[in-house]
Amino acid sequence: MSQKDWLEKDYYAVLGLKKDASDDAIKKAFRKLARQYHPDQNKDPQAEKRFKEITEAHDVLADPKSRKEYDEARSLFGSGGFRFPGGGGGRTTSGVNLDDLLGGMGNANGTGGPGGLGDLLGGLFGGGNHAARGPRKGSDVESEVTLSFRDAANGTMIQVRLSSDTACDACRGTGARAGTTPHVCTACQGSGMTARASGGFAFSEPCPACHGRGLIIDDPCPACGGSGQGRSNRTIGVRIPAGVQDGSRIRVKGKGTPGPNAGVAGDLYVVVHVTPDPLFSRSGENLAITVPVTYAEAALGAEIGVPTLDGGQVRLRIPAGTRAGRTFRAKGKGLVLKSGPTDLLVTVQIQVPEQLSAEAREALRKFEELAHEGNPRANLRVGV
Known about the structure:
19 strands; alpha+beta; Helix Hairpins; 10 helices
């Protein structure tokens, strides 16, 4: 959890509790809400997000140490998140940008940047931003792919080409010209930070000698300009599971940007776009298809062949008197998922011939006389 969360998130409100709630009350509230919003029990699309918020709130408040630090941080900077008077809850108020003030504490890794309130909070709750000099998780990477309906339904293997930051090949990430090495900054003893007292508080700020790096490079690498970073192009094989739907995000752990200072790599997220199929569509986890039948087949009943996704056919019995739009279920003839085969939903559409011979017209008139169906619109009335 980032330092910014200590300021902006009201975990007591998430659990429906007051600040003086007991440990037992926190446990009871969490259990009640967890049962209500667990994704396995609640199919509402927002339930999973709500469940994560509840779990995060419980993790902070159920631990006495983290709860104490959380309460102290919110007491120092105001209840309900950090706000300036008249700010209306925005990120920028009266020309002051909250991200700048927080010193980048809202980044994805929660490590924060040098200076600002992030350093102040770090000093209050142990350690400051010195941890930023150690290993950190790399950034997540997102890519998009477009699949055919059948590849998405059956599952497939794709190749994703990525371009990301990596260690410079020339200096192997040191930032120093080949054959030379950086030396530890004597001003900050390699920490990258120096302390500055102001108004009774001790602020940490980037060391002016090494600019927060902790190392001094006398002869910078000409290839990367001393940054120690380069660009790499790589191709990642990603398995797309059977039944993936349009708009799904597939996570591939550890395939994102390598972490700074030997930290773990971030994750790769693949957003899937699925092109429509001329015959088939999806109905939840089931496969769906609309098939035409003649009026005679619908009226008299018939056995018809319905195509399946694998190129075969399934025989389906249409009972006499079937109406247009009726849907039949062919069990186990839909998608083959990890959880098992799904069903094929077959909706019939009565096909009306565009042209009739004279004999066919006469036969239909005779049928109309014998069927005695009457006027099907006789009961239609416009309300007064």
